[in-house]
Amino acid sequence: MHTREFDLTEIAERVLGKFKPMAAEKGIILATGFDRKEPAVALADSDRIEQVLMNLLDNAVRATPAGGKVELSLTAIQNEILVSVKDSGPGIPPGEQHLIWERFYKIDKSRTRSSSGTGLGLAIVKDIVEAHGGSVKVASKPGAGSTFTFNLPTKVNKS
Ligand SMILES: Nc1ncnc2c1ncn2[C@@H]1O[C@H](COP(=O)(O)OP(=O)(O)OP(=O)(O)O)[C@@H](O)[C@H]1O
Ligand SMILES: [Mg+2]
């Protein structure tokens, strides 16, 4: 890993920009739950964290139907930054929430897109977040969307 200090808001903006065309085409709102002018300095591997955001937003935008919303939030707390990606998609059945992190696991293979998606995205997300000493979790109810949240260490240890 190439750990350095960087502003997570910049990475978040860049990743959101990449999904703008896809969201517009689908008729989805891409929202930001953070202050664009307020830096959120993380101590991490920026390329890998960008990959994490790409994978989570890709899932969220794909899962969300027209008229829905995907929101990327950053919250700086004491020694870490909480990052969450919330969507208004179909949600994930409780019995499958622990399985989606496995390589090649996909929910309801008949319903999901057939041509793309190998089921690796979340396994990669979990590996990268855990390599930074963080953890990633999902909160979801069928019919009420999903929220994926992970934590990253910040620049200074203030405690
Ligand atoms: N935001 C979400 N809403 C609903 N289901 C989701 C969401 N994110 C992931 N899933 C389910 O979890 C499965 C695994 O996700 P993962 O990102 O690992 O693979 P993928 O998106 O199918 O393929 P890849 O990421 O390799 O392109 C998905 O196929 C989908 O069924
Ligand atoms: Mg994926």
What's the helix and strand layout?
Elements: E1 4-7, H1 8-26, E2 29-33, E3 41-44, H2 46-63, E4 69-76, E5 80-87, H3 121-131, E6 136-140, E7 146-153
Parallel strand pairs: 2-4
Antiparallel strand pairs: 1-3, 4-5, 5-7, 6-7
Helix pairs in contact: 1-2, 2-3
The structure holds adenosine-5'-triphosphate and magnesium ion.
Summing up helix and strand content along with how strands pair, one would put the structural category as alpha+beta
Q: How are the strands of the biggest sheet laid out side by side?
A: 2-4-5-7-6
How many individual helices?
A: 3
Overall pLDDT score:
92
Largest beta-sheet characterization: 5 strands, mixed
* Backbone CA Rg: 15 Å
Q: Please report which band the strand proportion falls in: under 5%, 5-15%, 15-25%, 25-35%, 35-45% or over 45%.
A: 25-35%
Low-confidence stretches: none
Report on this model:
The chain has one domain: Histidine kinase-like ATPase, C-terminal domain (Heat Shock Protein 90, 2-Layer Sandwich). By secondary structure, the protein is of the alpha+beta class. Strands 2-4-5-7-6 form a 5-stranded mixed sheet. It contains 3 helices and 7 strands, in the order E-H-E-E-H-E-E-H-E-E. The structure holds adenosine-5'-triphosphate and magnesium ion. Residues 55, 58-59, 117, 121 line the site of magnesium ion (MG).
What descriptive keywords fit this protein?
Heat Shock Protein 90, 159 residues, single chain, globular, two-stranded antiparallel sheet, binds adenosine-5'-triphosphate, 5-stranded mixed β-sheet, binds magnesium ion, alpha+beta, 3 helices
